[in-house]
């Protein structure tokens, strides 16, 4: 995977390989204050026809943003462009030139936002058409903006990060990010046996913990869906299809863990969610793009999963 160095795209020839064999995720560079800052200044505010979202349907982080766009009735307000499933030497590419500038690659957007940008070229990207810049390229922040930033325009006040649960949500998010969301990547991108085994043990310890937690409540926090559930969902959804084999996360499938499997189907079957899911993109992206892990680039035909099968998670909600 290449990256930008001082505004220039550089392909990866192994020069960024980690020395300890562990996968180290780089922090996102564009963070934003949406709405007034402490001094009362407003750089980005909720407006019609001002923002554009770039996502990959394969990417679990971008998928979070797509889910919140759907849940929060933002589809008309914030148009979306989907990158091609294959991420190759030039990073994320567009199958058709993207609609704002006719760019063919996502790195051109980063260059437009900052001609001296140094960092990874990741999705999701929330773009500001007015200032022609990246508002934010961190999914955790984009979903917070979507959760409440546009309520006045949409009239949708559903709240997935309610004030009274914030401390609890933040705690569970941190645990799930490290053990599971990023945990699968730490297994898949490890380049040393011990680094892989450590990541594998941590991942399944975290999944065991969540499996136990879901034995007596419907969602991560009691019986109410919060941001924490959607952040976990996008990783669980890809688990049996990709991470189990491609990232060698193969102690168990999610389908082997009854509470997690019921929980995953429950979330998958929530209104509108299926429209945000593309297993075609998910499989094509991972198995084709990561040549170092799968040099033949053969995309497996299976597995067949029953995401629409009934679940009994509503037994907790009475
Ligand atoms: N912390 C970021 C991570 C986003 C991310 O790593 N996206 C991946 C796709 S799943 C990506 O674009 N990778 C390209 C790269 O790292 O070069 C977020 O949550 O938004």
UniProtKB/TrEMBL annotation:
Entry annotation: catalytic residues: 59, 185
Pfam families noted in UniProt: GST_C_2, GST_N_2
Stretch forming the signal peptide: none
Organism, scientific name: Mariprofundus micogutta
Keywords carried by this UniProt record: Transferase
Positions annotated to bind glutathione: 92, 120-123, 138-139
UniProt keyword Ribonucleoprotein present: no
Domain GST C-terminal: 162-296
Positions bearing the site annotation: Lowers pKa of active site Cys: 243, 286
GO cellular component terms given for this protein: cytoplasm
MF terms (GO), sorted A to Z: glutathione transferase activity
Protein name: Putative glutathione S-transferase
Alphabetical list of InterPro entries matching this protein: Glutathione-S-Trfase_C-like, Glutathione-S-Trfase_C_sf, Glutathione_S-Trfase, Glutathione_S-Trfase_N, GST_Omega-like_C, GST_Omega/GSH, Thioredoxin-like_sf
Tree of life domain: Bacteria
